[in-house]
UniProtKB/TrEMBL annotation:
This is tRNA/rRNA methyltransferase SpoU type domain-containing protein. One of its GO terms (molecular function) is RNA binding. The keyword Transferase applies. Residues 1-40 are annotated as: Disordered. Keywords: Methyltransferase, Transferase. The keyword Ion transport does not apply. CDD domains: SpoU-like_rRNA-MTase (cd18095). Coiled coil: none annotated. Signal peptide: none annotated. SUPFAM superfamilies: alpha/beta knot. Residues 221-297 form the tRNA/rRNA methyltransferase SpoU type domain. InterPro entries: Alpha/beta_knot_MTases, rRNA_Methyltransferase, SpoU_MeTrfase, tRNA_m1G_MTases_N.
Amino acid sequence: MSGKSSKILKADGKAAREEKKRKWEAKQQEKELSVNRKRKREQWCEKHPEYTTFVTEDLIAQVLGNEKIHGVPSLLQPYINLREGSQTSDDDSSAYFIAEGTETIRLLIRQSTENNPLKIHVNSIVVKPSVLFDEPVNLLQDLERIALKKDSNDGSHKTSRVPFHVFVAEDHIMSKLAGFQIARGALACGDVPHNRDAEWLMKYLLELRQGDDSPQPIRLLAFDAISDTANLGSMIRTASAFGIAAVVLSHDCCDAWYRRSVRVSMGHIFRVPCIRVDDLAAFLNNLKKGPFGVISYAAVIDPASDLRLETMEKGKKAM
């Protein structure tokens, strides 16, 4: 081997060693950054123990292995084995819903703190650290916006408590809790509004009318015997896009607050109230007897159905 070839081999070997060293150092630096990032997140949770918990393997084992847990860990029970579809609280038999997806949870967080008739009570959220702390999602901004409120008297800001519990959990822990791989990065549990009936809807519509300086017709969307929760969620999302004021369901419609329906609605069920009535035809006919009248309607009716909207008399007042 010539001296020139030997020098080339030595140079190549040195370059390879330097590249290997550079990659090793970069990997070590990334590990260190990851450890520091995780520690900072844990420290943030430790600073807000009143509403934040960093979920560990031990906590998950406690929740999965004990049906009679109390306190903060009990808030994780609604997320256990989500595929089974249970949506009833063991404490007081009140119904709850499960929401999924980062932007859906963001919408829910904002809706839960607004002072309006559509306010939703949220019990807890479960989020991945990256979803809570990192861009582009950064749900922490929404939480801090809740916690830092402006005083209406002097304009100063004061800190208040986030009104629901925040669980921070890594991917594998969220998946272990839910019973399947969680890809959406955020879950939430809230109470299904229990007071929304025909009487509530009429009061809600009156409030809409009173707050409207230039009244436009209020549009309702009525569904009869819808059985597919995904279809219902999709129609609720579409209703929101078209400015529908409320959705009215017949007694035999599927549950609008079922997990699949909430997911497909992409959170718009929080914006469009849904009520269930025993007799859909009677409810729609009774609209014209109150402060509202029906000026128009459109429907596709199954010929075999007892519902006959074509027999409705149109009222004189614009709804």
